[in-house]
Write a structure and sequence with these properties.
This protein is an all-alpha fold. It has helices at about 5-15, 35-45, 50-60, 65-90, 95-100, 105-140, 145-160, 165-190, 195-200, 210-220, 220-225, 230, 235-265, 270-275, 280-315, 320-335, 345-355, 355-370, 375-380, 395-410, 415-430; strands spanning about 385-390, 440. It has a two-stranded antiparallel ribbon. InterPro entries: CodB, Pur-cyt_permease.
């Protein structure tokens, strides 16, 4: 594998604007993070007021026991998806956009995957930033656009420097958030009987189990599909399981079920004021920081998708730090002028397109195994295969069919329906030999004239 020529060319750029974070290569094993650093990253994704609100919304329409069943169903579905895809990302040290080149989509197909993921995640970054700005404006005053700009700039600045600093931010925010929330909830529930709240009937209109499970599993399915963005920094497969399962337990069983109790208590899904009103200015700050910690992953994942998209389509190797600046500015400005909230329906549509990607990845990597051999051959050397399939037309057909099932079939959980359809179709057609790659592409470097560098030629993201 050719690696030395590229190393000198990329080093100066990497030092000038943040970290490239192995956007187009494997994460070397000696640059991966320890168990506790990664655990805090996972737990940080569980810490948000929106999860309490989801729990309260379900609690208004379900008994405590039924809500527990709904959260269990949602958590099991998500954990299976996260572990199956995340373990592949950990083994290969690759993010989802790059992983798809050898797991069912080929080089050109990975560009389509990257585009869908990038647009979806940067869109949700803008939407979340708008919600962030509106919330701060309502709590402390000042125009919403100003807070959108402040939040957007701060998150962009964090993501520019990559995973290492995002992990450091998680170490600070995660304990503060859950400590503050625990104090608020204990103070609120101290004067009420927990057993009575658990046995009380739902105060609102009944919510069917399938609808509740859809809200729980479907709401985080996109995050599950792009879990390799995080797990590629894990050292062991057991770490992926324990950390993701811990995140599921915390977010669904603790945060979500406490939200159910709060919903029964106030007989409304609007429970954010409980946490905010009992925590003071410090609590408000911590809650807002935790929201920013979740939104930084939207921008980070989008930047990785754009880098892969540009290399495939335009044969131009972009630095992830530069891409982050552009995406962060665009998302921030659009959120500041209030445009992003008009695109939530479109972003929800993209959300149905993403689960089939996970189904195809899992089917190819763990069951069919027709295209992953180049990854197996280069894994120990921590380099990338010199070639990848150019097109896999049948995978695109499966993707479209699975999307239609998720979008137009009314039964079950749409995100799960589309994911399962893609998985089963790919397994069946792949094992029958009907999923065939067409053409072979050489992995390109920045100028498109030579093989991509080995993983170690990329800018370091930080030691474990």
């Amino acid at each position: 594998m050719a690696s030395a020529p590229q190393a000198d060319a990329t080093a100066p750029e990497a030092k000038s604007i943040g970290s490239d974070d192995y956007s187009l290569s494997r994460v070397p094993r000696d640059k991966r993070f320890g168990f506790w650093s990664m655990l805090l990253q996972w737990l940080a994704q569980s810490g948000s007021i929106s999860q309490f609100t989801l729990g309260a919304t379900i609690g208004v329409g379900m008994t405590f026991g039924d809500a527990f069943l709904a959260f269990t169903l949602g958590a099991v579905i998500l954990e299976i998806v996260i572990f199956a895809i995340g373990l592949a990302g950990m083994r290969e040290g690759l993010a989802t956009p790059m992983l798809t080149r050898w797991t069912g989509f080929g080089r050109n197909g990975s560009a389509l995957v990257s585009f869908v993921i990038a647009v979806s995640l940067v869109g949700w970054f803008g939407v979340q930033n708008t919600i962030f700005g509106n919330s701060v404006s309502a709590l402390v005053g000042g125009p919403s656009w100003m807070w959108c700009v402040i939040a957007g700039v701060a998150i962009t600045g964090l993501v520019i420097f990559g995973f290492k600093y995002m992990a450091l931010f998680a170490k600070i925010v995660t304990p503060l958030f859950f400590g503050m929330v625990a104090w608020s909830i204990i103070t609120t529930l101290n004067d009420h009987s927990i057993s009575e709240l658990m046995s009380s009937p739902p105060p609102g209109e009944a919510i069917p189990l399938a609808v509740a499970a859809t809200a729980i599993a479907g709401g985080y399915m996109t995050g599950a599909i792009v879990s390799p963005e995080m797990t590629r920094y894990n050292k062991k497969g057991s770490h992926v399981f324990v950390q993701s399962a811990s995140s599921m337990i915390l977010s669904e069983y603790i945060v979500g079920m406490v939200g159910v109790l709060l919903g029964h208590l106030v007989k409304s899904s609007d429970v954010s004021h409980i946490v905010l009103s009992t925590s003071g200015a410090f609590g408000v700050m911590v809650v807002l920081m935790s929201t920013a910690k979740i939104n930084d992953w939207n921008l980070y994942g989008s930047s990785l998708g754009v880098v892969n998209f540009f290399q495939v389509v335009f044969r131009k190797r972009l630095h992830r730090g530069v891409v982050t600046v552009v995406l962060g500015i665009a998302g921030t400005l659009l959120s500041a002028v209030g445009i992003m909230t008009h695109f939530t329906e479109f972003l929800s549509l993209l959300g149905v397109m993403i689960p089939p990607i996970g189904g195809i990845i899992v089917a190819e990597y763990w069951v069919v195994k027709r295209m992953r051999k180049p990854l197996d051959d280069t894994r120990e050397a921590e380099t990338l295969p010199l070639t990848s399939p150019t097109w896999v037309p049948m995978s695109l057909v499966i993707w479209v069919v699975a999307f239609c099932v998720g979008k137009f079939y009314d039964g079950g959980i749409p995100a799960l329906n589309s994911l399962a359809t893609a998985f089963l179709l790919y397994c069946a057609l792949g094992l029958l030999g009907w999923v065939k790659p067409y053409g072979t592409s050489t992995l390109d470097d920045e100028d498109g004239s030579s093989p991509a560098p080995a993983a170690r030629a990329t800018t370091p993201a930080g030691a474990a």
